[in-house]
What we know:
The chain is an alpha/beta fold. It is built from eight helices and 19 strands. The protein is elongated and about 70 Å long. The model has no long low-confidence stretch (mean pLDDT about 95).
Amino acid sequence: MRQIIIIGSGPAGYTAAIYAARANLKPLLIASSVEAGGELMNTTDVENFPGFPEGIQGPELMTKMQEQAERFGTEVVYDDVTSLELTGPTKKVTLGDGSTHEALAVIFSTGSAYRKLGLSDEERLSGHGVSWCATCDGFFFKNKTIAVVGGGDSAMEEATFLTRFAEKVHVIHRKDTLRASKIMQDRAFANDKIEFVWNAEVAGITGADAVDGLRLRDTVTGDESTLDIGGLFVAIGNDPRTHLVHGQLDLTPEGTIAVAGRSSKTSQAGVFAAGDVVDPTYRQAVTAAASGTVAALDAEHYLTTLPKDLLAKASESELAAAN
Ligand SMILES: Cc1cc2nc3c(=O)[nH]c(=O)nc-3n(C[C@H](O)[C@H](O)[C@H](O)COP(=O)(O)OP(=O)(O)OC[C@H]3O[C@@H](n4cnc5c(N)ncnc54)[C@H](O)[C@@H]3O)c2cc1C
């Protein structure tokens, strides 16, 4: 049995691990089998993470976070969590290889997934003109003509924000009316850099090394057309990865894990949540890292409240595993 298991290897999970390991809690971090490192593995330049004035490549940043966590004694396992039992003082974490690990505290930091268009060139051009985050990448599209796909509040917000950089922003929407709130619609309609393409869906993204255009399909007539652009922002929604805890932890109306106030405490004692899985609003690497810190400190404090014999049992198992 461990004192603490951390699920997820994004900025939230690794930051929680750095703090937990430096508090001598010998964390076990389950990193996932194919998506270790989290969302920043899918991007190129990260220019807004403090401490890197020249910017840093997403995968390099995540490698550095992992090295920092391991330096203080975090054990990283490349597997997926397939099920969890979170009630009671001992939590059970089962992995894809069938093994079960026990811990007194769990930090859940599985992130969230931006919805994708499902086009073959979307992944290939991710970080090369296709983006899901205007705050992260808008700066790279100075004076370009770009497109935003979506018709909700987040699409209007992204489009309006992107007009600070882009020369023109086409908003592509499948229908002829928007889902967005009236105030967000009004703001977008009033912006003369935004042009709406109604009743249209993206049928293809073109460009050899970087996005240079779109193939659009009219959702009413089926006619196809092309649009020359230098960047595409997909803003059709975001799903927190919570399926493992359904029925065990309370969720918010937005689908994120509910936590108490500014803490990381979930509805289950000894279970803490951090990063994009609790955050319907900001979803940035630095905010995820900060909430990983909160979770590690909350877990550390929780452990001090447990009976000494339970803690001794966990420490003995950690010692045995290390030898
Ligand atoms: C293309 C792109 C570019 C971005 N660029 C920037 C940027 O420039 N600056 C910025 O601040 N933010 C950027 N972001 C946002 C940033 O990546 C996220 O806010 C941040 O990664 C969230 O961290 P997290 O740890 O909460 O989740 P994630 O990074 O999503 O990590 C979650 C982790 O949990 C793991 N996991 C999920 N399920 C399981 C399971 N069952 N078992 C084990 N592990 C599991 C995943 O594999 C992953 O390792 C970008 C996002 C994208 C998609």
